[in-house]
Amino acid sequence: MTVTLADVAARAQVSPATVSRVLNGNYPVAATTRERVLRAVDELDYVLNGPASALAAATSDLVGILVNDIADPFFGIMASAIQSEIGGPGGRAGGERLAVVCNTGGSPERELTYLTLLQRQRAAAVVLTGGAVEDEPHASAVAAKLRRLGEAGTRVVLCGRPPAPDASAIALTFDNRGGGRELTEHLIGLGHRRLGYIAGPEERTTTRHRLEGHRAALAAAGIEEDPRWTVHGRYDRRAGYEATLELLRRDPTLTAVVAANDSVALGACAALRESGLRIPEDVSVAGFDDLPFSIDVVPSLTTVRLPLAEAGARAGRIAMGREEPPHGGIATIRGELMVRGSSGTPRS
Amino acid sequence: MTVTLADVAARAQVSPATVSRVLNGNYPVAATTRERVLRAVDELDYVLNGPASALAAATSDLVGILVNDIADPFFGIMASAIQSEIGGPGGRAGGERLAVVCNTGGSPERELTYLTLLQRQRAAAVVLTGGAVEDEPHASAVAAKLRRLGEAGTRVVLCGRPPAPDASAIALTFDNRGGGRELTEHLIGLGHRRLGYIAGPEERTTTRHRLEGHRAALAAAGIEEDPRWTVHGRYDRRAGYEATLELLRRDPTLTAVVAANDSVALGACAALRESGLRIPEDVSVAGFDDLPFSIDVVPSLTTVRLPLAEAGARAGRIAMGREEPPHGGIATIRGELMVRGSSGTPRS
DNA sequence: AGCGTGACAGCAAGCGCTTTCTATACAGGA
DNA sequence: TCCTGTATAGAAAGCGCTTGCTGTCACGCT
Fold it and tell me: Where is the HTH lacI-type domain positioned along the sequence (chains A, B) (predicted)?
């Protein structure tokens, strides 16, 4: 039914071994023979059987990219950058690899299952992006799985994710804490003293780090934080919208709202406007990530730019063994404060 | 080194065949035996070898999702919906499938290579999303490849993509033409007579269809189009920004700008504002797709909502054989005009 | 002339699983 | 009691490819 290596070999009048070697190009084959083989491949429209070759060679050309939410540009941008370096089709020549992005939806179980699936496929490399879940049993399960993957020869790289406690994987981490701190310092510098904070889901590292940075800035300025000023929600505009309404309900005198990320900030802006508040005259707003739309909204968003594409590209190269891992296996990538229209001095 | 089926069998004191059957659950195995096997699997921390099982069974649990640009929420949302229905981890129970999204970057070659890679992996199904490239040789190469995939048992579904000429694949198409027409009719209804159009890349079906809809509306209203009113660019904000500047340069009297999609519209808004024009008082703006941010920008964007998530989910179910394909293999999905703040009556 | 030496090509042994067919065991029914 | 049917387990033959090892041949050297 389907064409196999043997068929090609027969047609080219060579042994299957020779065909395999022509296709893999890692063993000397005379030019004329190669030619003959390639012609046969072409004529028969032969396509290598991936599973069979993966089995025989004990390696595969699959590279997994785990993301929390593929519909979120934060992950999309990173995934895109990683993938372009993985050198899937169109990347630099050489082994064509199938870069596959897996959407965990932020669920620890799915993350684990995808990891198992990739392990099952004997993936060549795995890149995990975005914040991790801090739930203890899950965290150690993931760590164990990553260790096992590493032992099996799969290269594991974390991108925008805190290093594993046992440092078993190479990690490119975003300095969420530092960015969060800088952002809030900026607002404090403008004169704000009552700042609401819309945090992400409780159990995520990203959420915690950004919040810690925020609080560190408050503490450094001697501002005592009111527990009512913090609300948790998901990382999307809807959550930002609702959280802002809640914040306003709890304390209408807030002069600034710091959001967990740009999408949340967008929702916050909508809520503020609907509440009749002007930005930034009445309330300042700040985001995080600097996604593409952030500069276009009105007023443009004050935020912390994270070099998502650069980090992704680097992670991709490291995963492919095309770049040296950072010294010590861990690199911290800093964000850059982008001061724009959504932040201003508080109303007196 | 690595644990194999045979190791598990030895430990559980059964034959490899039995272990395989326990794992695949499609053959009667006594409860006590099953139990013993599962315990052994657990104790040895055994993970099935995907390639080996795919080879032996001649099927795999990979499902491919092709997207033009993973960093674009348009595709992210669809991919996410498809994936959740594919029932990757966390989906409904049963066969766990590895849904992999492949980023073609809009390049025909990469699209083709990914298709080959998926064919090589003997993918269970493939979903192609978004507009196709109209370049003839490429189009027929893709069609041929899809046909071959179909013959090999891979289910092929097109989502948000025009049906293949030979109707070889199931297609869920967006009515881009109708949406484009409706949108422009709306603007004409408001009194606009000089409308700029920022189209996507020339060779894409989506671009052409939306533009045709626009022109049909103009023609129906007896408005003769000035060729200077159309500019082509990519589907991103940057392109929208630049195209708008160009449009303004060519004809400063335009009263409306219709963009290829929401991101482009966002860039257009930025350019207009920087040119000192108010929206919609001086110039109306319209987008397409109704991405999540479109309702939050100021002014909120008049656009055509495409049910991306619903379409994706449906495509996913069809790909998994969990929903009947539409009658005739083709379904057209209509968009819905969303009239919002960015469109108004033209300045007299 | 004899022979070491490259440069290629082929043989054949798996890689780890699935699955068909066969074997065994026990329960009823005749 | 013997035979048949049913439930369950095992033996073994691949699935299509890779690769270590074994030729074979044509040179060029001594």
Answer: 3-57
Which pLDDT score, from 0 to 100, does residue A95 have?
56
For residue B295, the chain A residues in CB contact (below 8 A) are 270
| Ranges of residues in chain B whose predicted pLDDT is under 50 | 89-94
Tokens linked to B102:
């492949």
The encoded tokens of residue B70 equal: 């993973």
Measure, in angstroms, how far nucleotide C4 C1' is from residue A35 CA: 31
The pLDDT value recorded for residue B92 is 33
pLDDT exceeds cutoff 50 at A90 = no
Per-residue model confidence as pLDDT tens digits over A1-10: 689 999 999 9
pLDDT tens-digit profile of B194-253? 999 999 999 999 999 999 999 999 999 999 999 999 999 999 999 999 999 999 999 999
Positions 38-97 of A with beta carbon below 7 A from strand D are 48-49, 52-53, 55-57
Question: Rounded to an integer, what distance in angstroms lies between the CA atom of residue A303 and that of residue A285?
Answer: 9
Q: B91 and B320 in contact (C-beta within 8 Å)?
A: no
Distance from CA of A195 to the nearest CA of B (A): 22
Closest by Cβ to A114, choosing from B51, B84, B89? B89
pTM of the model: 0.91
Give the C-alpha distances (Å, rounded to integers) separating A91 from A84, A123, A311, A317, B324: 6, 18, 17, 11, 38
For an interface test with A, the pick among B2, B47, B122 (most A C-beta atoms closer than 10 Å) comes out as: B47
A124-170 confidence digits (pLDDT tens): 999 999 999 998 899 889 999 999 999 888 999 999 999 987 777 89
Question: How far, in Å, CA of B139 to CA of A246, rounded?
Answer: 52
User: Which of B98, B148, B310 should we substitute to test contact with A (largest number of A Cβ atoms within 10 Å)?
Assistant: B98
Q: Is the CB of B8 under 7 A from strand D?
A: no
- For residue A233, report the phi and psi dihedrals to the nearest 5 degrees: -165, -175
Contacts of B8 (CB under 8 A, 6+ apart): B19, B37, B40, B41, B44, B46
| pLDDT for position A1 | 67
Q: Chain B: nearest CA to A231, how far in angstroms?
A: 21
**Could you write out the DSSP letters of every residue in B324-347?**
PPPGGGEEEE--EEE--TT--PPP
Contacts of A274 (CB under 8 A, 6+ apart): none
Which chain B residue's Cα is nearest to A270? Answer: B296
Q: What is the pLDDT of residues A205-246, one digit of tens each?
A: 999 999 999 999 999 999 999 999 999 999 999 999 999 999
Nucleic strand C within 7 A of Cβ A6: no
